[in-house]
Amino acid sequence: MSDQFNIALMGKSRQSMLKAAESLTEEQRTMVPAGFNNSIHWQLGHVVAVAESILYGFGGQPSELPKEYAAFFGPGTKPADWTGQPPAWEDVVSRLQQQVVHARETFGSRMDSAVAVKENFAKAETIQNLFELVAYHDGSHEGMVKAMARIVQQ
């Protein structure tokens, strides 16, 4: 896959998630449907938090994402366990979109470079591998967002 393809794929997946959620009310975005552990708000925040961890953590670059994102949206978290208010929907949406731009600026010319953290759970070797991992993760959550959007609209 080309370098630009991976970055574009990240953007397309996120636009698809946003399109699925654009007509939902706040109540629908924060609803946890039966059979699910999380809401659409959580899904989008999780995509941002995990991509940031993978790209910047394994890529060896400083993250600009507030630490509260990991607390609210990291792996294993769920709205039922939240204490306090999560980042606002508008902030999550903005970061979901801007993360693609920032990742392109940070890593776009270094896709063949070795990762900074060689011992990573995915055994990624290059920055390109990190983008492939993010694309896989984003795609799985894109499907969840689309399914959940249909359910909460019924």
Please give the structural blueprint.
Layout: H1 3-21, H2 26-30, H3 40-59, H4 68-73, H5 89-107, H6 127-152
Helix pairs in contact: 1-5, 1-6, 3-5, 3-6
Protein name: DinB family protein
Domain DinB-like: 12-143
Pfam family, one: DinB_2
Radius of gyration: 15 Å
Q: In one word, what is the shape?
A: globular
String of helices and strands: HHHHHH
Strand content: under 5%
Q: What count of domains describes the coordinates?
A: 1
Structural class: mainly alpha
| CATH-level-4 superfamily name | dinb family like domain
CATH architecture: Up-down Bundle
The CATH class is Mainly Alpha
> What's the tally of helices?
6
Q: First CA to last CA: what distance?
A: 39 Å
- In CATH, the topology is named Four Helix Bundle (Hemerythrin (Met), subunit A)
What is the average of the pLDDT values? 94
Largest sheet descriptor = none
Contiguous low-pLDDT stretches (5 residues minimum) are none
- What percent of residues adopt helix (DSSP H or I)? 55-70%
- Count of individual beta strands: 0
